[in-house]
Design goal:
The structure is a homodimer of 377-residue chains. Helix content of chain A is 42%, strand content 19%. Chain A is an alpha/beta fold and 377 residues long. In chain A, the strands form four sheets. In chain A, strands 4-15-14-13-12-11-7-6-5 form a nine-stranded parallel β-sheet. The longest helix of chain A has 27 residues. The first copy, chain A, is globular and about 60 Å long.
């Protein structure tokens, strides 16, 4: 396995800011734009790695916060990293732990050095700093690591937003110092902050870019703000993002978000949404989301989505899947999760193809027309 | 799909009462002796049908009690039976609902006509009779149906045991009258009762055999009695069981039970034990059961069982599986279930082979020597 990390652009759309490219890593290629399923605690919830592969995932996420608490870096080091432990041989990306830590209620102390918090598992106290986050992410061993940043809640006043942005820049520098280019064979991405204040966002882009990273992420969006505001901020930011780096919109998306992000020039997406709603019986179809618990499917012979190639859609009716959810059978959670992950990845593949074939806008309007129309009923 | 149900004996051991044969059904062959995984509510818990096939299952069970309550015969009829609904194309066996109903606390009324009970789901009242059990089992559509019987608890006095046996014989006659030979293409097995009283057991064998069934089951064992007592009853019964019919020991077994039953001439076994203990992190190995929650596996690189060919053993260490159980990840339940089902089926395949190769006793002593030795530590 040779250290490698390159990003190349194959095609830039003339219809929008969308672009098509590929990230080459030591564990294989990631075609972009890409949707990355989330494997919170060392598994994409309910799914086996071969199923995630069959769904077409070229990269998955791991969560530093969860993995540092359990199994912990001692165990991860023993097993030679998370890839080997969880039998996943394709690329992986880890967040920094910052987002989860700042979302915790039991945040004991925060200063320029780092953050002290209590574990949600046993209340034990932990310190997380930029350097500690780098150390943990090296134990996990993902192809792409993220800088430790401060993500402020929505809404935040400008003073709070600036302070968090300044601290994020300072921490980004410490991360880069601790983790130079491809140390341990792993790339490191910077994160743009600045809440909903475009001037702060632009300053953050400039100062983060200057530090020098292998990719640049947009953090602090989809944190509770109205969607039009998120898109407005993206509209203002994206022309200023460096073109030669992969751009990652953290914690986004839904099917519609993939279109909104791609047309603004985003290359990478991740979200727990598809697997989380699946475990509550909600699944994607080209005609909007449906709940498999709904009584109307009791006698339905139809698959979740007739166009889908996943195991659930090839073998099971909505009627049977409804039965599984009513009977609280784990196979129901599995099949809904498998379908939603497959749906997101197939949708992104279709988006990518539509960009190349210069019909992205038509595809977007056709898809969202059907999907959102039914959603809003 | 042509109606077909035959049982043929290929080999009778000279070392013990064990026998090797095959049941031919409209949905394929079942080599015997066989272990049948239980698919309580239309799914072998946590597993997809392709996984159950890969584990080597030639037949699975469905539970009439659970399936009559949910999804109910209206839904089953709509889908053309459980096979099609759950995408299982190999043979299936259904119990009669009697065992579960008699285990219920909310048993409202029992008389010679049948049993009234309240659903554990919503408290709704149901009547179950021999004819109703036949009707429901025809809706489910298994290759093998079971007569509706009364299974008495352990311990029961002789008078109670005789009354239950007499009622079971009377109900067996009504089942046969309602469901003649291969009606709807489905075979029907009788069930021997008589609690721990050998004379009652022998009388039950004779009177049930006389009614004429496609197979004969031993019910009312493994209901709380000491294992030596169960084996003593089997020792007394088995020489009197008809040789030309498949013999099914209901609700048994553990790995050791497979040996105990096979050497006494049992052809078919089923039990929720392997999948139930799996969901509590207990898995089979050739050196006894282990708990994957045990701290000693935290850094273990070893698979559950080095000789096992299941997906879990080919891909995951005990250390990773322990992590999944600690983190309450569903993949842990799946992998432990898959392993235990695979283990039971592989063990039965090895037992079958050892019978044919005239080395059953040696194999039994070697396996149980290792398995029980570690179990008892």
């Amino acid at each position: 396995m040779t250290d490698k990390f390159t990003f190349s652009l194959d095609y830039s759309s003339e219809e929008c800011w969308g672009r098509v490219g590929r990230i080459q890593t030591r564990r294989g290629e990631i075609p972009t734009p890409v949707f990355m399923p989330v494997g919170t605690a060392g598994t994409v919830k309910t799914l086996a790695p071969d199923e995630v592969k069959t769904a077409g995932a070229s990269i998955i996420l791991g969560n530093t916060y969860h993995l540092m608490l359990r199994p912990g870096t001692g165990v991860l080091d023993h097993f030679g990293g998370l890839h080997r432990m969880m039998a996943w041989d394709r690329p992986m990306l880890t967040d920094s732990g910052g987002f989860q830590v700042f979302s915790l209620k039991k945040l004991n102390k925060i200063n320029d050095e780092g953050v002290e918090f209590a574990s949600h598992i046993d209340g034990a106290r932990y310190w997380l700093t930029p350097e500690e986050s780098m150390r943990i992410q090296r134990s996990i061993g993902a192809e792409i690591m993220m800088v430790f940043d401060e993500c402020c809640p929505y809404p935040s006043d400008e003073k709070t937003a600036r302070a968090a942005m300044e601290r994020s820049v300072a921490w980004a520098k410490r991360c880069r110092a601790d983790h130079p280019h491809l140390r341990n064979g792993q790339a490191l991405f910077g994160i743009v902050q600045g809440s909903m204040y475009l001037p702060l966002r632009l300053e953050s882009i400039k100062r983060t870019e200057e530090i020098g990273f292998e990719g640049l992420a947009v953090g602090g969006l989809s944190v509770g703000e109205p969607k039009p505001l998120m898109l407005e901020i993206l509209d203002g930011m994206m022309p200023h993002m460096p073109k030669n780096l992969p751009r990652y919109l953290m914690g986004v998306g839904t099917p519609e978000d993939l279109f909104y992000g791609v047309e603004r020039g985003i290359d990478m997406f991740d979200c727990v949404h598809p697997t989380r709603i699946a475990r509550h019986a909600t699944v994607f179809t080209t005609e909007g989301r449906i709940s498999l618990m709904n009584a109307r499917w009791q006698l339905s012979d139809a698959p979740i989505d007739a166009d889908c190639s996943c195991y659930a859609c090839r073998n099971f009716s909505r009627g049977y899947l409804r039965h599984l959810f009513k009977a609280k059978e784990i196979l129901g959670l599995r099949m809904a999760s498998l379908h939603n992950v497959t749906f997101m990845i197939n949708l992104m593949n279709n988006i990518r193809q539509s960009l190349i074939e210069k019909r992205f806008i038509a595809f977007r309007d056709q898809f969202l027309g059907r999907y959102l129309d039914k959603e809003n009923k």
